[in-house]
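User: Can you predict the 3D structure for this chain?
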Amino acid sequence: MITILYSILDFINNVHTYILSWNDAYEANFTDKELHFIIIGCLGMLMIFVVQPIFTLLAKTGHVLAISWIYVFTLILLLTFAIEIEQKITGSGVMDFDDMLFGVWGFMLMFLVYAVIRGIIIGIYHLIKGD
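Assistant: Here is the predicted structure, written as structure tokens:
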């Protein structure tokens, strides 16, 4: 777990250094806060331009559950990371990547069970209704 987190941190640090070198090379003199404002703002907008058409298509085709799943899955990843980081900082547990995997797999399995039950109920409804 720690190796993976350090790899992510190294990548982020390399990108940060690269962006700072642009700032220095072009004598833009942006502060760190201004750079965060610009870079995170642009990254967020790029993500909107990718996610919005996908979610619009899913909503138009009646796949709102897929949108809900993507949102909750993202929150689950964030929550499991936060729990592991909290355990490392407070010493209340061991920071372990497998804990995160098991938590995410727990959600995936429980969602699969829900989706199967939901599909059966919807299928029975359509058989009774005659659609």
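The longest helix spans residues 97-129. The helical segments are 2-25, 32-60, 64-90, 97-129.
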